[in-house]
């Protein structure tokens, strides 16, 4: 173990990040379904799990209506549902 300012710093084993990302990726579809459940059933929604350019898992949930962005801007159902799950909501730019 390395020391910095009198504190011991543990090195993570090789493959730790990939294992953590795989575990997170496996849990994301269930979380996406809970977010979908908070959106009124009159709107169709879709979920997608993918990895961003940095290799981190990302959950995308969207209202798939042609005017889905306008519906979300007016009512905020997705954002509210995600916040109720304890998530920080950001517009995803594909990064």
From TrEMBL:
This is Uncharacterized protein. It comes from Corynebacterium kalidii. The lineage of its organism: Bacteria, Bacillati, Actinomycetota, Actinomycetes, Mycobacteriales.
């Amino acid at each position: 173990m390395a020391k910095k300012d009198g504190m011991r710093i543990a090195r993570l084993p090789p493959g730790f990040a990939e294992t953590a990302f795989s575990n997170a990726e496996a849990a994301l579809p269930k979380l996406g379904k809970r977010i979908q459940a908070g959106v009124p059933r009159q709107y169709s929604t879709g979920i997608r799990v993918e990895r961003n350019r940095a290799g981190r898992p990302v959950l995308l949930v969207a209202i798939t209506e042609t005017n889905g962005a306008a519906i979300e801007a007016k009512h905020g159902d997705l954002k509210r549902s995600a916040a109720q799950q304890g998530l920080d909501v950001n517009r995803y730019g594909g990064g």
